[in-house]
Amino acid sequence: MGAAGAFAFTALPAAHATPSASAVITEVYGGGGNSGATLTRDFVELGNAGSTAYDLSGYSVQYLPGSPSAGSTWQVTALTGAIAPGARYLVGEGTGSGGTTALPTTDAGGSIAMSATTGTIALVSGTTALTCKTAADCAADTRIVDLTGYGTAVVREGSGPATGASNTASVARADSLADTDDNAADFTAGTPSPVNSAGQTPGSGDGGGGDGGSPTDPGTVRVHDIQGTTRLSPYAGQTVTRVPGIVTGVRSSGSLGYWIQDPTPDTDPRTSEAVFVYTGSTKPTVAVGDSVLVTGKVSEYYPSSTSQSNTEITGPTATVLSSGNALPTAATLDATSVPDAYIPTASGGSIESLPLQPTVYAQDFFESLEGMRVTFSDARVVGASDAYGELWVTLKPDENATARGGTLYSSYDQPNTGRIEVMSLDTTSTFPAANVGDELSGVTTGPLDYSTYGGYNVQATQLGTLVDNGLKQEVTRKQKRDELAVATYNVENLDALDTQEKFDRLAEGVAVNLNSPDIVALEEIQDDNGATNDGTVTAEATLKRFTDAVRAAGGPVYRWRYISPTNDADGGEPGGNIRQVFLFNPKRVSFTDHPGGDATTATSVVKTRHGVELTYSPGRIDPTNAAWEDSRKPLVGEFTFQGEQVFVVANHFISKGGDQPIHGRYQPPARSSETQRAAQAAEVNTFVKSLLAVDKNAKAIVLGDLNDYEFSQTVTTLTADKVLKPLITTLPAAERYTYVYDGNSQTLDHILTSPAVTSFNYDVVHINAEFADQASDHDPQIVRVDLSKCGRH
């Protein structure tokens, strides 16, 4: 569909109001890197039969499988530059492990793994993915400038697709670039013959800008060429020669290598001027300030299967031209420079091929600075230092600030854009122990990196000075005589082999910070020998040590109830057999025992002449239901306080493991673990309904580590039909958090109450999550209920 085709240029955006109507697809090859192939990479070649240059700014080439299914989507590779009159333009795509010959230097590139035998390629005015999946629908889309279907492609021009494509054959248009809008007639199969805009063919150039010049002369490829205008390098899989740059940072532990930055940038804000040079197991021999020429292979390194990638030069050789050079000016990170929108979306697909929009999206802004020196000043800490020498700051001090100095995560749709992780490249100094609300005063500077844990981060070569703002642990008030105090606390894999210090600190949290609640639901109590996987499931020794430590800290002599799990059936650390446990103060509250509950027997609600009761107390909610597979089963107990009956349900829902990160390449990210948590929430909701069906005034307290947010589907399902009220929503918005992750203060732990619980006082007690020195990674919470004032309804 060239100049004489069905697609008129009159519908193009204003920026292309008078383009040359002569750009066509000239060759398509999807066998690159496959068995039997010579070339290592797939490609699409474009041509211009006109007498003036054809501007490709804002254009793309897009690929659709030959037989698209309902779930098939067009994959997009953005283009830049122009096609000169009579010239070709080469777009590199997916790279395979086969083949021996690289493409000549590509003019644009992506990572689309094209089929060798069937598919459709479209040249499109725009970078938004097409949606048509039939030849007729695509013919009606005026954004399509030209289209080529090959093999058995459903979407094609004319009577049929071009035939003969294979691992060793491309389909190509005649040199005349004649276009009859019939793919079968316009294209013939033959040996792949890619040509780039410089007229190079495989073997005529080095595929990476080598020019045969002096070893001390820069090659023709600069860092911004390597980085390109998307998240993927157009040079991925190719060798680049003598790329110039100044060394700005050296990593001598972990992933070894160094960053180079070109001191002579281009004018495109989308293209980063720096790149990481990965040296493998070899410690770098260069130093910060060295001017170098680097030769190596460009690759995209993925820290995890769902993360974005780091563009790197691997297998490098470097020539040091001089030392002690001034470093390129660092880009400023602050509330003004970082956009308010977080990241683009792609209907759950990869955003890697989308053109960067650094003035629109925060994550695009950071990607446009990948590897470059960046700097920020006087930033507030929003994620405490951890054991790995990492902390989080906010570049936007007013963004969703919590009452204690953090940044609140309150919506899937509006992630906090000002958060960024900070690490240090200085291995000789001690990393500061920072708490939330502290400040990194002065200037922090270093290369901008990307990691699967947290996303973009500053590898600090200069770290600001820590200012301690004096964050204190909270202590909640003592319950009044007529108040029943019920708390929940995740004690992070506590077992009898842990240090006494860990027991003492957790015990102090119960006895002092929580002020000795009447009932405490504990999550993550392990069995007596911890992670030793020998079939032990009892936790008597663990609980004896813990309750002794609580007593030593000034608390009461707690008794306990729990159900031992089936060995290795409840998830968590193998051999650890974590479970929920009830502690209760027998001087204030009594536990109603209905014996017979075990790991696989369900408790239920029955009506007796004495009122509503559980068949088993302690007991489990439907433990053989698939909702609880490889996960903790809820523990239910029946208590009496001052003559009033109370039912407590302790939970620890399945974790978020396996969910895609909010900073990853798939957008919006899939939350696959949510499905099972929703099923678990539905089971607990059903149980509470069964309780209320027997006694509508039953007082139930549902609590624990739900591993999900107050705005999640999990909580919505748990509270369906208003059988439960989430107490976290009764707090001011800036106080709704129990956990801090990647600089986000968020709610994972919850207390919920049935409708009859009308007189209560609720508090999240911040003693762990915001501190570098933690007894657990969760904060406990407590509700004090005045049962005598709880109304009937």
Describe what you observe in this structure.
The radius of gyration is 31 Å and the shape is elongated. By secondary structure, the chain is mostly beta strands. Mean pLDDT is 92; it is low at 1-20 and 206-212. 9% of the residues lie in helices and 31% in strands. The strands form 9 sheets. Strands 29, 32, 33, 34, 35, 36 and 39 form a 7-stranded mixed beta sheet that branches. Strands 8-7-2-1-11-12 form a 6-stranded mixed beta sheet. The chain has a 6-stranded mixed beta sheet with strand order 27-28-26-25-41-40, covered by helices on one side.
How do the strands and helices of this protein lay out in sequence?
Elements: E1 23-29, E2 41-48, E3 54-55, E4 59-65, E5 75-78, E6 82-83, E7 88-95, E8 108-109, E9 119-125, H1 135-139, E10 144-150, E11 170-173, H2 183-186, E12 187-190, H3 223-227, E13 239-251, E14 256-261, E15 274-280, E16 291-301, E17 310-322, E18 331-332, H4 362-367, E19 373-383, E20 390-394, E21 419-424, E22 439-451, E23 455-460, E24 465-467, E25 483-494, H5 500-513, E26 519-525, H6 540-552, E27 559-561, E28 579-584, E29 590-592, E30 605-608, E31 611-614, E32 619-620, E33 635-641, E34 644-652, H7 674-694, E35 700-705, H8 713-718, E36 725-726, E37 739-741, E38 744-746, E39 749-753, E40 760-764, E41 781-786
Parallel strand pairs: 7-8, 15-17, 18-19, 21-23, 25-26, 34-35
Antiparallel strand pairs: 1-2, 1-11, 2-7, 3-6, 4-5, 4-9, 9-10, 11-12, 13-14, 13-16, 14-15, 16-17, 19-20, 19-22, 20-21, 22-23, 22-24, 25-41, 26-28, 27-28, 29-33, 30-31, 32-33, 33-34, 35-39, 36-39, 37-38, 40-41
Helix pairs in contact: 5-6
